[in-house]
Prior knowledge:
By secondary structure, this protein is mainly β. It is about 15% helix and about 40% strand.
Amino acid sequence: MATKAVALFLFLVLVVAAESHRPQSDEPPATAAVHGGKRRKDAAAPTHIHFFFHDTVSGKSPTAVRVVDPPSSSSPMSFFGMVNVMDDPLTEGPEQDSAAVGRAQGLYMGSDQAKLGFFQAMNLVFTSGDYNGSTLALLGRNCPLDAVRELPIVGGTGAFRFARGYAQLRTHWLDFRTGDATVEYDVYVMH
């Protein structure tokens, strides 16, 4: 019996030793195939992307339009029940005529009965630079009057396949009369 136990122990030691000396790829085969075999050398560090989001709800050419009005019983400060659809420009700087980096396409709806709070679902569609043709999907709560907000990144396409991370939002400019706003985005994404 002791001979069988020693033989089994030696067999297990050999298996473990053989596995530990087998050449390893930088990434699992499934991931390598999906990414075309390319992986960022600093894959543990998030990518930081900075831009400005321009939400224009007023004027002759709005980039966000209301498709559902809030019920009359809703608090006028919360916009509870309102739904807007957007195709907002993303730019390098805070000016509307700054270089374009992409579009924010999706919707936001008043989802807080007590204060201004939106449920926001959108794709950041990059149209220039290193991420041209790639997208990031964001989904979460956005309270525009808070100094800093976070929206989680729940996925992406192109260079951002398997993306996860978050976006920090800061209101750069807000016109309380029209509702137009410019929001600064700092995006941190693992991909």
